[in-house]
Amino acid sequence: MSKRILIVDDDPDIRRIVTLALSDDSPYLVNAVSSAEAALLHIARQPVDLLFTDIQMPGMNGLDLVRRVHELDPNTAVIVFTISPEDLTPDRAAELNVDCLLAKPVETDRLRSTVDMLLNPTRQLPRPSQRAGRLVEDVAVPISAMPEVMARPVAPPSVTTGPLSQRLSALRAKKQTGTLSDGPVAMRLTPNRTGSSGHSYSDAQIEQMRLALKDLAMEPDVACAVLSDISGMVLTHWSRERDINVAVVAALAAGNTLAMAEISRNLGQRQPGRLVIHEGQDLSIMMATMDDLLLLIAIGPQASLGWARIAVMRACEDVQLIARGG
């Protein structure tokens, strides 16, 4: 099966150039997105073998993206590709398990060889454009050598060969993304009730909600935990399964929840039940509603439904407190 690579950079020229470099004469499946948020959604739908990310981007930065991707799959290889390698200290790189740091600009052969080194450690995949005899140490900036990189800026090659190096050199003069601010990035959710305007949540609130679900999600009997708005838009999730399509699961759960709520209203119930359990042979699904939010967890067949019910309700209380600004 072909290895999958995801490129994350807010600069469309960089995305196009790197995509061409890694997909031309290549055994890899390469995709590119413009933000960390889009990357998380892509990975939720289709896990990747290698994450290739910039650091400074609007919204979530590349280092936070690396942390979240490794929470989903610690085995995902990571290349950080930046014009400012000093933004990533050796200690921070070790903490995030970053495999390689590349400073922009970089030659096409070096870029390809670095990817081959990570995705095919037993053999370097031959390409016609690669020069024979190049040492692996000349390919990338391994984490062990990063203190030297941090101590002095990485200079571009004195002689550029090929269109990739020339275009990357020209891109260095372009205006770079500014330092990320701590201001909130609001997310407006679909209203649960007619006439309601819905709610907006900041990145900080969504991160707090994610952490509030961690203890529940780390239980051995829990396969996944998904927090979405009532329309099925995913805010955050934890999952043990790489191939689970979290966005589809949330959308289906939201549809079922809305349908059951409508049935309850037709039966004359003013407040439909907030917790629904679907028992299955392999997994049982629990769905809980909180105002405009929906929490869904999948638990194994050996899990106690009584324990799961209590754990979900506690998680709902924590999430609801965060959502209400408590």
Specify the biggest β-sheet. 6 strands, mixed
Q: Please give the CATH class of the largest domain.
A: Alpha Beta
Count of structural domains? 2
- Proportion of beta-strand residues: 15-25%
Class by SSE composition: alpha/beta
What proportion of the residues is helical, as a percent range? 25-40%
Q: Provide mean pLDDT, rounded.
A: 72
The CATH topology of the largest domain:
Rossmann fold
Architecture of the largest domain, according to CATH?
A: 3-Layer(aba) Sandwich
What is the CA-atom radius of gyration, in angstroms? 23 Å
Any idea what the shape is? elongated
Instruction: Give the spatial strand order of the biggest sheet.
Output: 2-1-3-4-5-6
The helix/strand order is EHEHEHEHEHEHHEEHHEEHEEEH
First-to-last CA distance: 48 Å
Going by CATH, what is the homologous superfamily of the largest domain? Response regulator
Structure description:
There is one protein chain. By secondary structure, the chain is of the alpha/beta class. It has two domains: 4-171, Response regulator (Rossmann fold); 187-323, Dynein light chain 2a, cytoplasmic (Beta-Lactamase, 2-Layer Sandwich). The protein contains eleven helices and 13 strands. The strands form three sheets. Strands 2-1-3-4-5-6 form a six-stranded mixed sheet, sandwiched between helices. A five-stranded antiparallel sheet has the order 10-9-13-12-11, sandwiched between helices. Strands 7-8 form a two-stranded antiparallel sheet. α8 runs antiparallel to α11. The longest helix has 21 residues, at 246-266. It is elongated and about 55 Å long. The model is unreliable at 123-142, 144-165 and 171-197 (pLDDT under 50).
